[in-house]
């Protein structure tokens, strides 16, 4: 079992968890993810690690409650536990000193972009960060982003905070005014596609993270197959970060929609039986924790 030591909402439906996972905390690098399973009947979901603390032995995950499992996850809090956390998986972000880099976080993608932005800044780059959200209420982690950025720009669709407009509006202005050596964009697929088109003409190296399409995290299911440079790749084992100018976003959009109907059925069923689902999760966790304690006690007796 993996204990949750801290949990708090960052915004509507978006919750941050600090989870005890010492081996992962020691090995994790920016850009990598873990596969989480809440209980023995649960599905496996990929979540990128926002941060890790090797001294405390914890990792930090940010969960947006949009489907059955993520909404169930967000019912948990400090003192609860989850069954499985496997990782770190995927290739780490490539960190090097390039000059001026633009990091773009759309919605919950900000949590995924944050550790790479910090690593790029620590490597000596000038980091310009653009955060995008539909409204001010949906903007997350602004203070943490500002702490690792030389300049931070806020864009909201409705103009309720920062500047009104899209992240690409600010990106186009930065590209016109400055020499940009790298762009990293993480967020909704339409946003990443728009960023790729904004930088294509100027041949600015642009990286996107395709974590949202992943399923089992091992490459065995084939659910995260993407087309990159006319070749097939798996987002989980070959990525999750890829050259944005080589990604076929049309194929990715189609794959992202493959399970939409089944996901809706699962979500509707969950919402109709939410209390029972939450109680099963908590009781399963309590039983597994008791089993672990008995096993540990037995090991101590055996070695006494």
CATH H-level superfamily title of the largest domain: Nucleotide-binding domain of ferredoxin-NADP reductase (FNR) module
Rg value: 20 Å
Q: Per the principal axes of the C-alpha atoms, what is the gross shape?
A: globular
Q: According to CATH, what is the topology of the largest domain? A: Rossmann fold
DSSP summary: helix tally = 10
Strand content: 25-35%
What is the straight-line distance between the termini? Answer: 25 Å
Q: Segments where pLDDT lies below 50 for 5+ residues?
A: none
Question: What's this entry about, in short?
Answer:
With 304 residues, the chain is of the alpha/beta class. The chain folds into two domains: 1-89, Translation factors (Elongation Factor Tu (Ef-tu), domain 3); 100-256, Nucleotide-binding domain of ferredoxin-NADP reductase (FNR) module (Rossmann fold, 3-Layer(aba) Sandwich), CATH 3.40.50.80.
Overview of the molecule:
This protein is of the alpha/beta class and 304 residues long. It folds into 2 domains: 1-89, Elongation Factor Tu (Ef-tu), domain 3; 100-256, Nucleotide-binding domain of ferredoxin-NADP reductase (FNR) module (Rossmann fold, 3-Layer(aba) Sandwich), CATH 3.40.50.80. 36% of the residues lie in helices and 29% in strands. It is built from 10 helices and 16 strands. It has helices spanning 22-27, 68-73, 109-122, 142-147, 167-177, 189-200, 235-238, 249-256, 260-272, 274-303, and strands spanning 2-11, 14-20, 33-37, 45-53, 58-64, 81-82, 84-89, 100-106, 126-133, 151-156, 163-164, 182-186, 206-209, 225-228, 231-234, 241-243. A 7-stranded antiparallel beta sheet has the order 6-1-2-5-4-3-7. A 7-stranded mixed beta sheet has the order 11-10-9-8-12-13-16, with helices on both faces. Strand 9, helix 4 (142-147) and strand 10 form a beta-alpha-beta unit. Helix 5 packs parallel to helix 6 (189-200).
